[in-house]
Design a protein that fits this description.
The chain has 113 residues and is mainly β. The protein has strands at residues 2-6, 9-11, 17-24, 33-38, 44-50, 56-58, 66-71, 76-81, 90-97, 101-103, 107-111. Strands 2, 4, 5, 6, 9, 10 and 11 form a 7-stranded mixed β-sheet that branches. Strands 1-3-8-7 form a 4-stranded antiparallel β-sheet, with no helix packed on it. The termini are far apart.
């Protein structure tokens, strides 16, 4: 299993970023896909899930600001992040649950003026 996240960077509060995660080594369309994040000095936090049928779920702090989506033809999951806040600063990972949580290397999102 390989999960390669990209798209992070430095953005001002109120700005937007789109994260991508390219997956390989498993049947992408058969798995729920997750975004999780880890802020400096804090534990891992679940952010969002896109289910195999396309339904989605979000942690309360990002509802209405973040949108998760998947492209099964490209084996890729996305996270569109709008109205970013300093508290969204974290290392963002995509992940699957395959006999335990598997996550790839993260992409750093820094929200700061």
């Amino acid at each position: 299993v390989q999960l390669q996240a990209s798209g992070g960077g430095l953005v001002q509060p109120g700005g937007s970023l789109r994260l991508s995660c390219a997956a390989s080594g498993f049947c992408f369309s058969a798995y729920w896909m997750y975004w999780i994040r880890q802020a400096p000095g804090k534990d891992l936090e679940w952010v969002s899930t896109v289910y195999t049928g396309g339904d989605t779920a979000y942690t309360d702090s990002v509802k209405g600001r973040f949108t998760i989506s998947r492209d099964n033809a490209k084996d890729t999951v996305y996270l569109q992040m709008n109205s970013l806040k300093p508290e969204d600063t974290a290392l963002y990972y995509c992940a699957i649950d395959k006999g335990g949580t598997i996550r790839g290397q993260g992409t750093l999102v820094t929200v700061s003026s």
